What we know:
This protein is of the alpha+beta class. The chain has a domain at 2-65. It is 26% helix and 38% strand.
Amino acid sequence: xxxxxxxxxxxxxxxxxxxxxxxxxxxxxxxxxxxxxxxxxxxxxxxxxxxxxxxxxxxxxxxxxxxxxxxxxxxxxxxxxxxxxxxxxxxx
Length: 92
């Protein structure tokens, strides 16, 4: 059991806990930051004592959604490249 400091995070992210040769992924939605208590019982247990193995490391994966304007710009750029490609195919 331990406590991780996730005070710099907010929003949606995935927390990966690695213990021994196993890992577990946990999805957090709408998290507002702070300290997080965890244990490794769901990740890896010691067969002799049924206690959790020590935590090897933890990783946080965050996601960013592009703004609609960025997607519009990307889409028009791809459309323009497709039109130029089609025009070159007809001319040649």
